[in-house]
Amino acid sequence: MISKIAWKNTWFKPLNTFLSIILLTASVSIISILILLQKQFEEKFSSSMDNIDLVLGAKGSPLQLILSSVYQMDAPPGNISYTEAEAWMNKPMVESAVPLAYGDNYLGYKIVGTNENYTKHFDLKIQQGKLFSKDFEVVVGSNIAANIDLKIGDTFFGTHGDAEEGEVHDHHAYKVVGILAPSGKVADNLILSNISSVWHMHDHEHEHEGHSEAAHDHSDHQHAEGEEHHHEEVNPHEGKEITAVLLKLRNNMAKMTWPRIIPQNTEMQAASPALEVNRLFALFGVGISALTYLAYGIMFISGISIFVALYNTLKERKYEFALLRITGATKMQLLWLVLLESIFLCTIGFILGIVFGRIGLYFLSVSSQEEFKMAFDPFEFLWKEEGMLFLATLSVGIIAAIIPAIKAYSLNISKTLANA
Amino acid sequence: MIKTQNVTFSYSATQKFHFPDIDCSNGQTLLVTGNSGTGKTTLLHLLGGLLQPTAGNITINNQDILQLNTAKLDAFRGQSIGMILQKSFFIEALSVLDNVLLASWIAKKSKAKEKALSILDNLGLKDHVYKLPSQLSIGQQQRVNIARALINNPSVILADEPTSSLDDENALIVARLLSDLAKEYQSSLIIVTHDQRLKSLFNHQITLS
């Protein structure tokens, strides 16, 4: 019955209630979005980083190299010579090496030239079809297959570079031979081919420049390929470039020394994903902490709003309290009544905050999926973190209500009624 | 049944009240009159256990209420005393019916819904039970107060100026109604008032001075 009175009272002054709830909802939703974002972001970054000790790539920003090669989120700093990279890939300390060659995209999804080591390295499973074995055969990530409805046997033309609108390579069509099982890793949003597909696509471009448009026909094209193949037997990768190599090393010493040795002796650099991602998180953390403080600030203000609302109504409500006491209510029941009203507000604010936070994250996820090919799961519940948030919200409510509740508890009924 | 002996009370060293003894048996009505400042409301609050006297005894149903601690007194008040106040107070957010039921829930942890409805019906409020108290007229609100005071079959009904805000006609109706209900429920009714209109209705009277 006390809770019924508290509940009815909450809605009897809808304006006060509304203000307090809006503030609470705002702060809870911001905090819950941040909690989820941070956790899922770090999870995605860490899971993609698994098994990669060093990344070999062109000199430049190491963070850029890591972002482009491991997370496919940035443009690569440049290309490296395949022969030069191969020398390091074949060293005995290397447990596995995954070469990556970027060139084209299809509707914004990167087409990455690599070898079968990529799927092994990231523990990717083929859901349908098979892995690429010939040039221009591709395996597509699960998200792509779902989002743009690619099936096995479909063909498409790539677009040069990493921008969706660009020059279309309409000489060779890629053919889908396999679809990856969802992994939650960046591969969900990648199209994988062999490296020579990327090379051939772009070699062809150079040949094409030397030919007149009219002279270009299919047989000509075949010839060009054949010629090149012949050439490869002599010196297979001479002058060929790739973008980066993901390395897993056997030897801890090499992990420490290669980042120093490689730039000294070659035109390449070796960057550690763990190091760079930690740097990124540290940068990130500042922003997240700032937003979190802001959100707790809003929660503090909502606490004040609850306090003011309860305190202001005390004067008119003291007769209500006196009435409850003369009908036999105890002091504790009055204390509880005031606390409950605040707890109701906080619980409603918390639930709405969690719901709106989810909705917010959903829209964030849609736009980050479009821009960065990175999706967030709005339906994940972090019981520990969000439980803590609930406790924090409740504490705000209880602290805001404690003074009004004590005032109700210690009300002098006789005096109140005599002065009515 | 309510009895008092040598009850005194003081708010300060200069302001002392010595109240005449009261003896009011079940079904009986006692009218306590007096001018402002003679301690009418103070007496009522003493009888209702809202104030502690400096000396004397107050016995309700053979229970000396001064022997009870705060929590027990709260419970005793809920079960054995029905108070009707000068002004009508309500839990504004609750309906008329819920306001009456509240008293039964607080005192007995159960909601006597049937009884509340029959009392409200008896008081002519049948059509208003689901309204908010603020939607009723003052006379109707006073009757809801009466219903709330009666819901737990109290041994004692204490009424503080129950008629002062009512017109002549309604004042007499309410006063008669109270006294009839006290007889019906076998409660001792004590009405504290300066309302001269009631003096002719009751022969059992005390005047404070």
Please summarize what this structure is.
The complex is a heterodimer of chains A (420) and B (209). Chain A contains 13 helices and 13 strands.
Structure characterization notes:
Chain A is α+β, with helices and mostly antiparallel strands. In chain A, 60% of the residues lie in helices and 15% in strands. Chain A has 2 domains: 2-45 and 279-418, no CATH class; 54-271, no CATH class. Chain A has helices spanning 2-12, 14-49, 62-70, 82-89, 117-121, 142-147, 195-210, 218-234, 252-265, 273-326, 331-372, 383-409, 413-418; strands at 54-58, 80-81, 94-106, 109-114, 126-129, 137-140, 155-156, 159-160, 174-180, 191-194, 241-242, 244-249, 268-271. In chain A, strands 1, 3, 4, 5, 6, 7, 8, 9, 10, 12 and 13 form an 11-stranded mixed beta sheet that branches. A two-stranded antiparallel ribbon of chain A has the order 2-11. In chain A, strand 3 (94-106) and strand 4 form a beta hairpin. Chain A is elongated, with a radius of gyration of 31 Å. Mean pLDDT of chain A is 83; it is low at 207-234. Chain B is an alpha/beta fold and 209 residues long. Chain B has one domain (2-207): Rossmann fold (3-Layer(aba) Sandwich). Chain B has 6 helices and 10 strands. Chain B has helices at 40-47, 70-80, 96-108, 113-122, 138-150, 168-185, and strands at residues 2-10, 16-18, 23-24, 29-33, 55-60, 63-64, 81-84, 156-160, 188-193, 205-207. In chain B, strands 1, 2, 3, 5 and 6 form a 5-stranded antiparallel beta sheet that branches. In chain B, strand 1 (2-10) and strand 2 (16-18) form a beta hairpin. In chain B, helix 2 (70-80) packs across helix 3 (96-108), helix 3 packs parallel to helix 5 and helix 5 (138-150) runs parallel beside helix 6. The longest helix of chain B has 18 residues, at 168-185. The radius of gyration of chain B is 17 Å and the shape is globular. The model of chain B has no long low-confidence stretch (mean pLDDT 89). The interface between A and B is medium-sized, with 25 and 34 residues.
